[in-house]
Amino acid sequence: MLYIMRRTQLYLEDDLWQALHTRAAIEKTTVSNLVRTAARDRYLGDKEKRRTAMMAIVGLWSGHTDLPDTESYVRNLRDDDRMERFGIE
Q: In terms of residue numbers, what domain contains 71?
């Protein structure tokens, strides 16, 4: 996958800076790569895990007969008296 990279600058506390440099040396990678990976994992998450979670809820309520008809429910929510309250007909 091709990523468009943008340059940024971070200010890190000394202990974090040292930890990142030590880890980068151990893993034979760069501090930049460690930061990108950590940010991607933290803020984007694992796409496959998200997809699996979303697929697990598909049809979750389909067998319930105690729920109102979806179309009627939504139409009821949309049927309001805003126009009348504002004196618009």
A: 14-84
Say if 70 falls within a structural domain. Answer: yes
Cβ–Cβ < 8 Å for 10, 35:
yes
pLDDT at 35: 96
Which residue, 5, 54, 47, is CA-closest to 30? 5
Query: In this predicted structure, what is the pLDDT of residue 23?
Result: 97
- The amino acid occupying position 5 is M
9 falls within a domain: no
Number of domains in the chain: 1
Does residue 8 lie in a domain region? Answer: no
Q: What radius of gyration, in Å, describes the C-alpha atoms of the chain?
A: 25
Q: What is the mean pLDDT of each run of 10 residues along the chain (89 residues)?
A: 86 96 97 94 82 82 76 79 73
Single-letter amino acid, residue 77: L
* CA dist list (Å): 42 to 25, 38, 58: 22, 6, 25
Q: Kindly state the tokens that stand for 19.
A: 């930890």
